[in-house]
Amino acid sequence: MKPIVPTVMMTLSFFPASVWAAEMPPQAFAQKAAISDLFEIEAAKLEIRNGESDKIKAFANEMVKDHSGSTHNLKDAAAKEGIKLPVTLDAKHQAKLEALKPLSGVQLDAAYASTQISVHIEAVALFGVYAKDGKGGPLKAFAENTYPMIRMHLVRIQGLNSGE
């Protein structure tokens, strides 16, 4: 399996970080982060219930724990900035969740792991750029504090997906 992180960095190089962050107001970052957490928790619950792999289920349990904590911290930061967070998934993430629902066993394990790679690549980009170049304040601090966890999730799921 080819490493994904260099691909992410090459993709991000087409969009200068400062331009992307300047175009992303705190409200947009908070909404994207909230939806990401919601998806992570719901997808992980499906894997825990219907998956087969103990390693993937252990990862899913970690996702529920970590993203529940992230959601709590995001709510605090958003409240300090007067930002209301969404409580439902957007259409894109709902479609991803719906695609996982009919699966079980090894099929769900594979689809869940693949989905986790793609959503964590997006989250690493989102949090990395906002942590570096976002508007200062509680949400930027949240992004800075959460970014290392999101990167570690990506590294872990890439390792699980490659059979390490």
Describe the structure.
The chain has helices at residues 5-13, 17-22, 26-50, 54-80, 91-100, 105-133, 138-161. With 164 residues, it is an all-alpha fold. It has one domain (27-161): Ferritin, core subunit, four-helix bundle (Ferritin, Up-down Bundle).
Short description:
The protein is an all-alpha fold and 164 residues long. The chain is built from seven helices and no strands.
Give keywords:
164 residues, mainly alpha, Ferritin, 79% helix, 0% strand, globular, disordered N terminus
* Poorly predicted segments: 1-21
| Backbone structural class | mainly alpha
CATH class bucket: Mainly Alpha
Q: What is the count of β-strands?
A: 0
The oligomeric state of the chains shown is single chain
Shape: globular
Stated plainly, the CATH topology is called Ferritin
One letter per element, helices H and strands E, the order comes to HHHHHHH
End-to-end gap: 11 Å
Q: Could you tell me the radius of gyration in angstroms?
A: 16 Å
Largest sheet: none
Name the CATH architecture.
Answer: Up-down Bundle
CATH superfamily: Ferritin, core subunit, four-helix bundle
How much β-strand is present in the residues? Answer: under 5%
Query: How many separate structural domains?
Result: 1
Number of helices: 7
* Helix content class: over 70%
Residue-averaged pLDDT, rounded?
Answer: 89
